[in-house]
């Protein structure tokens, strides 16, 4: 199993679309920047057939150092959440799925 990197994605765009590697890189960077800026603004990003990225606010809570047992406060923070579409889940599980049958309402 290998990790998908920006370089892998650029190469895939290059081979599929036929643009130069530089243009392919610019397209990828533009898409990633748009996704990042949208999430930074607190909005969700939905990629139909893939899933939804959203930002969730977590409140302050008390945590415990597992090594020492000492309680420490964990400050409030924003966390990135990804919820896959039913279509992606079906693909991962080898289930035959038709796009017309999938209800994206829960994404």
UniProtKB/TrEMBL annotation:
GO terms for cellular component: cytosol. This is Integration host factor subunit alpha. It comes from Gluconobacter cerinus. One of its GO terms (biological process) is positive regulation of metabolic process. Pfam families: Bac_DNA_binding (PF00216). CDD domains: IHF_A (cd13835). This protein is one of the two subunits of integration host factor, a specific DNA-binding protein that functions in genetic recombination as well as in transcriptional and translational control. The gene is ihfA. InterPro entries: Hist_DNA-bd, Histone-like_DNA-bd_CS, IHF-like_DNA-bd_dom_sf, IHF_alpha.
């Amino acid at each position: 199993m290998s990790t998908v990197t920006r370089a892998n994605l650029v190469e895939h765009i290059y081979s599929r679309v036929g643009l130069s590697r530089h243009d392919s890189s610019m397209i990828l960077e533009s898409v990633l920047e748009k996704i990042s800026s949208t999430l930074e603004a607190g909005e969700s990003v939905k990629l139909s057939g893939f899933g939804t990225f959203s930002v969730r606010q977590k409140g302050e809570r008390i945590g415990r150092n597992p090594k020492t047992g000492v309680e420490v406060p964990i400050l409030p923070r924003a966390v990135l959440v990804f919820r896959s579409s039913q279509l992606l889940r079906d693909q991962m599980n080898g289930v035959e799925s038709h796009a017309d049958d999938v209800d994206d309402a829960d994404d």
